[in-house]
Amino acid sequence: MATQLNIPTGINFTEFGSMFYPTLGHCLPSELHKALKGKKIIFSVDEKNLVPIEGWGKRPNPYCAETITTIQPIKGNTIVAALDSSSIQIAETEDGILYAVKSGIAISVSEHALMHFKIGPILFYLSEETIKQSELDHRLTKLVLFDSDSAKRLIRIRVERAIQMELSSHFTKSIILIDGSLKSSLFENKSQSITKVAENCLLNKNSIVGISKNTKIRILDSISSPLTKIRGPAYMDIEMIIKSLIRNTVGNNLLVKFGNNNSHVLRADVVTNNGNIEETLGRLLGNDSIAGGYPETLRLAHHISTFTSTEISCLRSHVLNNYDVVELASEDIRRTLLGSIPI
């Protein structure tokens, strides 16, 4: 015998889905036909860092720099030392989380790789007890304890700053190359901030260059078009834009193309030991191999710092064998509740 359902009257289930559209239309103004007509478009699902291969076109932009400076390679025995790092969550306990961090350093001179090595993996355990010595204020302490991404960022930034301080102290008249912008962070240790690193570089006549592969400042993509038309390496000043949008940046803010023709345009922050940006970038070009418009030392440092599945398995075994812990059976709650759909 079929079960009879008591369906509330007054609702037309055939048109049930469409009843929401009039309300949703008032969330934000959106006249699509008028707004999109004639626009050039790229589909960037999930905000992937995509840029049009031939640029956005010749539409004038009021933020474009008037001067584009070409870069000539300067050969010489200038050391280029590149650093990158990564951090991951390894395990968790009732009152804390165990993380691992690994850094890669690559060094070149006169366009030849001199050496490369890794630092780590190093384990860090963050709990209310262990984080007391971190110099973080109460709000940031809670954020780090409750948010794994913030904790990984804290560990990575502090390890990177410590290594940057050592590099800036031991090298002279060299270029220290790092992944990302030269920007102060709330997670820094006061004695090893990016400002302190830059000051240490200047004391030892080093330059420091931070290179960003992508940026969330969308205006930079549109104003980079003039650089793409230059056949060789060149840069343009964007300090007015960066300083108006971001606080606590260090050095000169640039858009740089290191390669020829259709090489990608990158954001670069530069602190020079003599105030000569063109010379610093020239020495970088003349002493590092630039493959595909990106410094080879920085690419190598990235690969060295990336955790492999083998390393993760070894870390798990290391923790089980050396720290007197008891492993509990666990399950993926999301997978259990939602199931999985084979692709």
Fold and architecture overview:
It is a single chain. By secondary structure, the chain is α+β, with helices and mostly antiparallel strands. It contains twelve helices and eleven strands. The protein has helices spanning 21-24, 32-36, 138-146, 148-170, 194-203, 219-223, 225-229, 239-245, 277-287, 296-305, 309-322, 333-338, and strands at residues 68-70, 80-92, 96-109, 112-127, 175-179, 207-212, 234-237, 252-257, 266-271, 290-291, 294-295. The strands form two sheets. A nine-stranded mixed beta sheet has the order 1-7-8-9-6-5-2-3-4. It has a two-stranded antiparallel sheet with strand order 10-11. A hairpin with a 3-residue loop joins β2 (80-92) and β3 (96-109). α3 crosses α4 (148-170) and α4 (148-170) runs parallel beside α5. The protein is globular.
- Compute the separation of the termini in Å: 39 Å
Q: Compute the number of helices.
A: 12
Strand content bin:
15-25%
Strand order of the largest sheet: 1-7-8-9-6-5-2-3-4
Mean pLDDT: 80
- Main beta sheet strand tally, sense and closure: 9 strands, mixed
Structural shape: globular
The proportion of residues forming helix, as a percent range, comes to 25-40%
Structural class: alpha+beta
Rg over alpha carbons: 25 Å
Q: H/E series, N to C?
A: HHEEEEHHEHEHHEHEEHEEHHH
Ranges where pLDDT stays below 50 over 5 or more residues in a row are none
DSSP strand count: 11
